[in-house]
Amino acid sequence: MIKAILVFNNSAKPRLIKFFEYYPEEIQQQIVRETYHLVSKRDENVCNFLEGGSLIGGNDYRLIYRHYATLYFIFCVDSSESELGILDLIQVFVETLDKCFENVCELDLIFHADKVHYILQELCLGGMVLETSMNEIVARIEEQSKLEKQEAGISAAPAKAMTALKEMNLPQKIKDIKLPDLNLNLRF
Amino acid sequence: MSTTMDQVVKKAKDSFGQMFDKSLHDLVRGIRNHKDDESKYINEAIDEIKQELKQENMAVKANAVNKLTYLQMLGYDISWSAFNIIEVMSSNKFTFKRIGYLAASQCFHEGTDVLMLTTNMIRKDLNSASMYEVGLAMSGLSCFINGDLARDLANDIMRLMTSGKAYVRKRAVLLLYKVFLNNPDALKPAFPRLKEKLEDPDPGVQAAAVNVICELARRNPKNYLALAPIFFRLMTTSTNNWVLIKIIKLFGALTPLEPRLGKKLIEPLTNLIHSTSAMSLLYECINTILAVLVSISSGLPNHNASIQLCVQKLRILIEDSDQNLKYLGLLAMSKILQTHPKSVQAHNDLIMQCLDDKDESIRLRALDLLSGMVSKKTLMDIIRKLMVHMHKAEGSHYRDELLSKIIEVCSQSDYTHIANFEWYISILVELTRLEGTKHGSLISLQLLDVAVRVESIREFACNQMAVLLENSHVFLLGSNSSSVAEVLYAAAWICGEFTSNLKDPQKTLESMLNTKITLFPGHIQSVYYQNILKIITYIITTSDNNDRIAKNLISMSIDKMSLFLSSDDVEAQERASVILNILKVVLKLIEKSEFNFNELNVLFDGILNPVAGKAQRKVVVPNGLDLDAWINDPPSESEDESVPTNQYYENKNTTQNLFSNNDNKEDYYHSSNLSSYPGDGSGYTQSKTYAEPSTEEIEKQRETRKQSEKVNPYYLKGSTQTKLIQKTDASPISSNTNDQSQTKTSTGAFPANLQLSLSDQLYRQSKIDEENRRLKKKSKTDNGSSKKGKKSTKKSDSTTVDEVDEDLYPIIKVTRGGELPEGVTESGNEDNENDEPSGKNKKYDPHQALKNINFDEKPVQIVPPPIVQKPEPVEKLPTTTEKPKKKKKTVGKEEKPSSSSLKVKHKRERSDYKELSSPADIEDKRVASPAPPPPPPAPTTTASPVVPTEEKPKKKKTKEKKSATTDNKTSAPLLLDIMSDDIMSGNSSNEQYNEQNVYKLAAQSDNLVIESSIIPSSSTAQLDVTFLLKNCTSSIIDHIGINVIDSMSSKLLNTTSKNEISFPSISLFPHSQNYIHIYFAITAISFPQKLKTTLTYSIHKPSNENQTETIEFKLDLPCSQFLRKKTLNSDAFADLMGSGTLTSQSHISIPSSSQDFSSIIKTICQSYRLTVVDQINSAASLYSESILGHPVALLFKSSNSQNGISIDGKSSETHFLSNLMEEIKSFLK
């Protein structure tokens, strides 16, 4: 079973937190920090397994991680998972991200944290590996995006207009507009 | 006009919609732009979100929730918005639903109280037409499912397992595990369904099922042993590495329970190892092979070959440049080490190389391995390399690790591997040179232990210790955090206790007296003073009553000793003053010439013996002695002065555990003279919690010490400096040359300056000795006069024999074990049981409940249809359930049930199940048939995925095998049984679910009995007809062919020629039975059918002639056989009834029947594949679907006291309905 999946960057800023067991937010952040501490001091060319920290783990749990550019991908798993298998799974996850975001970089994960979650949901469920084929995952994600787009189609017009407006920074202008006639009717 | 500003703003916002809202994108950007006041910005954002959540617009709400999910990741508690999240989850739009479920999966947990509001909403989503919505609901559910949800939604999830979409099926299977965790009761009924999924056509679903069963099996492997054959087949056929890895891991867990399974596994696993290119798979194969080999106690013929193969492959892994493979290779190697140390020892070199690895975790792994690899032969080499490593190792942590490892390796099993104790002592002395180690007391204890246990080493040890004592200033100058000074404790004690071995006691005494002892910790001071007295005693005793020498010695000692009275340690000070006074008395007596030298000697009389750790506990506590009561009042907490002493004793205890091998914990003391051993201060053991003094405290202590030095008028300032120079002159550590010392060693004199390189010399020396002995031995054996007998007589108690080389090494007597009170054995562990920390295991384990489930325990109730009342046939249940339980118990009591007894169990269970099945089943001939009836061939009747027709031949093959085994069942071993009969034991529970799967007599001849059973095939519009053929002859029947003439609405499928299917692979052994399957495509269901069927077969007569026979009969396909089990919840049922699609109606009434209402309903459900939608006392609505998808709804009403029943039927197919009703009517009459 996978107990937790963490993604954070080189300065311990979380980019994705997924716990398959309940921890309060405060502990979650502590776990991220502790894990960061364990992982960040390791050299690039050492093995990718380590004993879990004190907060997450116990004898049976190990941290399996990969480091890509600015991001650490960490899976905390128990002994029923194959270490090398999980390493492959991380690779699948990252490659899927790469495909879905087209050359994924940290910024993609920052601004689309929700989408990353959706991709992860195709990858595993309740701590168990669900799908390991990248193409299958990408196909499912695209279908769901299509679904969303269809739904947006109905109400998309105003939304699209809104984004256009926002780009023009109209909201600010609208905000600036005084509404004198309304004010007249007000009792302060 | 009473509007306020807020309302105006709200109005404006509402009318502008999302216009003013921040999107997630904006929020993230905002946070990034407010690096300095991030939390302020976020708090503002949360306030905004709270406003947004109050709005009606779902888009605004969803956006707000989406932002909250992001903030949750940053560590903000968003549980306050739980209700809003549920609102968003319940939105009709996929986009919003997705956002809602994501938020829920991140912040809900089983304790979230609003979860109880979600049950119906989630059920709706689970039943949604869009598979993505279903997937969403399941992903979410997997994160926050709790006991209530698991109970309420179990059936919905079960149904999803039979969904047409693999996307849904595999999620449902995985989710089921979470359901089991939260609602263990669901496991048993759901298990058969789960097992079917192992053979799902979709590999993803298969993988999911394997995954779940592996997780379950980890908790309670015993229950899943019966699945071994299925997994075995999967393992040999599957190509999905993920599945293979899981299965192989599972086998690793199962083999300890069934060693015979392990034997079967070796071969396929070996094949996999040879064939696979996937490292992950290779690694798991090796792991499981190792597990198998551990569980098989008796050696296999190719046992060693397997080990060799594993070791070889592991070597490849370790040699790989990939650090991960290297790490795992070492990990697996350490497993081999436990059982086959020899195989690993061959790869000594490789593991040594790993010690140089830049990765510390790899180095530590390698280090672990080394400890298991040592033997008499290799110990010195290994330790030597480790010493080299130690000197170049960076980081004190790793160095300390190395140090403790060296000691652990050398001391293991009472120093069995050490052939040369001089060498070991010198290694220990060398270790004291290590800067900043924290294992000083460990080294010290080793020195004491060796000196006490190995009598022959004492002389060497004493002189080495004398050197240490002379150079004690080195330890003073060493870094302050170091605990190396601890070795002086051992040095002083050894020199004092074994003074007779000292070359120059006088000199040692002087060096001890000249040390600034007061600068050491209290316990070291104490041991110094005590042993100074011992040495003095020895010198005086051996000086032949020479008054003059004694007088000089004592007066000199008194001079020096008075300095020690200023010790700041109470214990030390006390001892110093006692000893000083003894000396003064002695001096006085000598002056009066009244002194008898033996009087002093009496103080330290007696021999030292090791005592077993448990010895004390074996001594019976005398009556009236309360060990827990305080003798004196407990000391107050503020007694800081005693802390250093306490420290030591605590320290000693903990360190001792480090290298004592679990059951041999020895403590030493003078058996006859307690006072002479400083370690026996029983008053000092109260403080149980020992904390390492922080550097601060040490600093403070040093400060106070310096203060006291300044104040102390006796303290000679600057003397350390001068002493130092003197000492370095006397012991030129660095300039010492090997040759010089070597010559000195050979003359037997141990010079004071014999230093660091000693162990190296000894190493070389012993290598040379070894070689000499080897040559000698060789020449001896060449002469044919080797005396093997010598070996056995000399080594009385060393148990571990190291190959033939053993007698190459000198035999050194090591006192092992320890003394015990009379009549007590050391192995007695009984009192340990109470000591074990049971509290640790009491920690809540979510899987505990799963562990307690035993599939064999009692018959399962039927899952999907929630039938509450027990109809008549089941009334036997109480009596029948007890039976298997009892059987189980008695079987469980036998330690190793013989295969035959298990056999019996199986049989019994099956016949029990028979009693539970429908009345129609009871009529079944199988009950009467003498042979244990095999299970029905096809999985359950409910829309399960197709048993792919391509698999048919294989299935038949296994069945053939099975029928073969039924014949010689009693002698067949269990495993052969489960291996060949792949559905037997596992399916025994399945049988209950197939009550509808009833075999009815179809035709009969003198030679053959044909029974048939019809179930809807899982693909639509098909029927699966199973014929059970029973051979009544004593000849073999084969060449079976079946011919069915197609009707208007039915067509035989998979024909080999027109209207004909032949089964060339099936043959019936004498008096055995077998199944054949045929499938029909059905195009119309309105009318019952009778199909003309011809079965041809040939009988092999003993007279070697073949006789071909045919049986003609009509295959009945009544309308009820066109029904397929389909469950529907009451809401959907009501919708259906109200929808007006069920146009045709029918009504029958039965004036009276023999059964009561609820048992009728039950029987009907079982016989006609109907499920109960709702049941109230006297009415029940039932539902089913035809294989062509026509819904059928029936309302049963109990009309009067005579068990009369009226039935109203509704369907979209008039003829079908009326025919069905007629059938039911005739059935009930």
Automatic annotation (TrEMBL), chain A:
Taxonomic superkingdom: Eukaryota
Keywords: Cytoplasmic vesicle, Golgi apparatus, Membrane, Protein transport, Transport
InterPro entries the UniProt entry points to: AP_complex_ssu (IPR016635), AP_mu_sigma_su (IPR022775), APS3 (IPR027155), Clathrin_sm-chain_CS (IPR000804), Longin-like_dom_sf (IPR011012)
Location within or outside the cell: Cytoplasmic vesicle membrane; Golgi apparatus
Stretches that traverse the bilayer: none
Keyword Transferase: no
Predominant location category: membrane
CDD domains xrefs: AP3_sigma
PROSITE patterns given in the database record: CLAT_ADAPTOR_S
Domain annotation AP complex mu/sigma subunit: ranges: 1-146
Keyword Transmembrane in record: no
Gene Ontology, cellular component aspect: AP-3 adaptor complex; cytoplasmic vesicle membrane; Golgi apparatus
UniProt similarity note: Belongs to the adaptor complexes small subunit family.
Name of the featured protein: AP complex subunit sigma
Organism: Adineta steineri
The organism's taxonomic lineage, starting at the top: Eukaryota, Metazoa, Spiralia, Gnathifera, Rotifera
TrEMBL record, chain B:
Keyword Transport: yes
Family according to the record: Belongs to the adaptor complexes large subunit family.
Full protein name: AP-3 complex subunit delta
Cellular component GO terms, alphabetical: AP-3 adaptor complex; axon cytoplasm; endosome membrane; presynaptic endosome; terminal bouton
Chief location bin: membrane
InterPro entries per UniProt: AP3_complex_dsu, AP3D_dom_metazoa, ARM-like, ARM-type_fold, Clathrin/coatomer_adapt-like_N, Mu_AP3
Upper lineage: Eukaryota, Metazoa, Spiralia, Gnathifera, Rotifera
UniProt feature coiled coil, ranges: none
Signal peptide positions on this chain: none
One of the protein's GO biological processes: Golgi to vacuole transport
Subcellular location: Endomembrane system
UniProt xrefs under Pfam families: Adaptin_N, AP3D1, Mu_AP3
Positions of the UniProt region annotated as Disordered: 653-752, 767-972
SMART domains named among the record's database cross-references: BLVR
Alphabetical keyword list: Membrane, Protein transport, Repeat, Transport
Every AP-3 complex subunit delta domain range: 693-856
Biased composition (Basic and acidic residues): 697-709, 837-859
Comp. bias regions, Pro residues: 930-939
Compositionally biased residues, Polar residues: 653-662, 718-752
